[in-house]
Amino acid sequence: MPKATNKPTILITNDDGITSPGIRNLVEAVKDLGRIVVVAPDKPQSGMGHAITIGHPLRMNKVDIFDGVEAWQTSGTPVDCVKLAVDKVLHRKPDLCLSGINHGANHSINVIYSGTMSAAMEASIESIPSIGFSLLDYNYEAEFAPARHYVHQIVGSLLTRKLDKHLLLNVNIPSVPMELIKGVKVCRQAYAKYQEDFKERKDPHGKKYYWLTGAFVNFDKGKDTDVWALENNYVSVVPVQFDLTNYKLKAELEKNWKLK
Amino acid sequence: MPKATNKPTILITNDDGITSPGIRNLVEAVKDLGRIVVVAPDKPQSGMGHAITIGHPLRMNKVDIFDGVEAWQTSGTPVDCVKLAVDKVLHRKPDLCLSGINHGANHSINVIYSGTMSAAMEASIESIPSIGFSLLDYNYEAEFAPARHYVHQIVGSLLTRKLDKHLLLNVNIPSVPMELIKGVKVCRQAYAKYQEDFKERKDPHGKKYYWLTGAFVNFDKGKDTDVWALENNYVSVVPVQFDLTNYKLKAELEKNWKLK
């Protein structure tokens, strides 16, 4: 970490787009903690997962929409934004990358679909400590004051520690008034997911099309999960890794699986 | 697993699109092992990661391009295809989901960006045992015979076992003649990745745009990784999980991280 006299460079991105209230609140929340640089998508990119743009080129333009903060919008995905920021804006790795504040939950299995978390994971892969923040409220008029408080507290606290270069946290904040939040809880990812139910419609020419919808179901009864923490008004912090190897299954296959 | 008299239903998808040689070779490789149903994107979707389509509706049409095999093309991502297949085509979970054969490697960190592996992971989340296959050759005229052999061997062998409902394997096949392949090796995911280098161009109006390019770098010297296995002409099999919790960091934060 940089010395007190040398403020850390904090890269900020998101997946709801650079004009969303969530990213504005994130910038405001950490403005006093470092030199902030924003590189974010020029349009909403929710549900983009870890998508990258290979088949066509990217545009990037400087914008002046955050008071006194350097900001760039790109035509790419959240992951593209992190890559562009390092290679073409900062020309170095920032000290920390923050993504969000997402409008809506990214707990449980949603970490995998989330553009917010994929941007943070991309930074972690690039050896940049990184945190994704999400507020459990899809509303653009959501109340962000409690979220700002906890973002500042968590980022401020981490900046006093020596951070692992691959540190990656998934932070979700309940959408309740400040006085109801019980504190911060380190959790594991719940096995909870959406049960798909595509809605079938017909276009004016009689041809079918489908809308993805679904109901959220928690299959995980543990009290150490992010879903449990959020249901009980805690801020959930799930440490995340990008090594997806299933070591238990690896050992089992090595022992028992003989190919004919 | 279904009994011998009751052939398993095998869902096949990919990310290179339903007309690619890779998916055709996958269908051919396992046709005798079950009832095959193909639900795949109507266009290439490489690098889509775990993207899903939320903001606009999906189209799906039956196509007759595989000899005697039920097949549907969709306007969605690989993950959308798995969701649509379960909810609108099969109206039940298949016994197995296969994704690929991808044109190009999906080893190491590429598992995270890969549409091929994201489709397989989606199935695994849905409690469908699943395998993603990739051949280390981007060429559409690639030689698929060795890949077909190993696909048949691996799928055939797994169908004789009781499979965990979340089983998820990332299989990569070296692009060398059959006689040079040394066998199948169960591995862990290497820490190897692309070092980004965006190429800057100017459009006819003088405005900049950027192409994502990069060089592959292996930071992982282990001999138990997928990259090592492939470099040594083994077929690599990495067991994959969708619980991204970093339990080591979780224990450390629970012990040492006191928020002010």
Write the layout of secondary structure elements.
Two copies of one chain form a homodimer.
Chain A: E1 9-13, H1 21-30, E2 35-41, E3 60-63, E4 70-74, H2 78-90, E5 96-103, H3 115-125, E6 130-135, H4 145-159, E7 168-173, E8 183-186, E9 192-196, E10 199-202, E11 208-211, E12 214-218, H5 226-231, E13 234-239, H6 247-256
Parallel strand pairs in A: 1-2, 1-5, 2-4, 5-6, 6-7, 8-13
Antiparallel strand pairs in A: 3-4, 7-13, 9-12, 10-11
Helix pairs in contact in A: 1-4, 2-3
In order across it, which strands form the biggest sheet of chain A?
3-4-2-1-5-6-7-13-8
Major sheet details of chain A: 9 strands, mixed
Give me the Rg of chain A, rounded: 19 Å
Indicate the CATH class of chain A: Alpha Beta
Describe the structure.
The structure is a homodimer of 260-residue chains. With 260 residues, chain A is α/β, with parallel strands linked by helices. Chain A has a single domain (9-190, 222-256), classed as Survival protein SurE-like phosphatase/nucleotidase (Stationary-phase Survival Protein Sure Homolog, Chain: A). In chain A, 25% of the residues lie in helices and 27% in strands. Chain A is built from six helices and 13 strands. The first copy, chain A, has helices at 21-30, 78-90, 115-125, 145-159, 226-231, 247-256; strands at 9-13, 35-41, 60-63, 70-74, 96-103, 130-135, 168-173, 183-186, 192-196, 199-202, 208-211, 214-218, 234-239. In chain A, strands 3-4-2-1-5-6-7-13-8 form a nine-stranded mixed sheet, with helices on both faces. In chain A, strands 9-12 form a two-stranded antiparallel sheet. In chain A, β10 and β11 form a beta hairpin. In chain A, α1 (21-30) packs across α4 (145-159) and α2 (78-90) crosses α3. The longest helix of chain A has 15 residues, at 145-159. The first copy, chain A, is globular, with a radius of gyration of 19 Å. The N and C termini of chain A lie far apart (53 Å). The mean pLDDT of chain A is 93. Chains A and B meet through α2, α3, α4, β8 and β11 of A and α2, α3, α4, α5 and β8 of B.
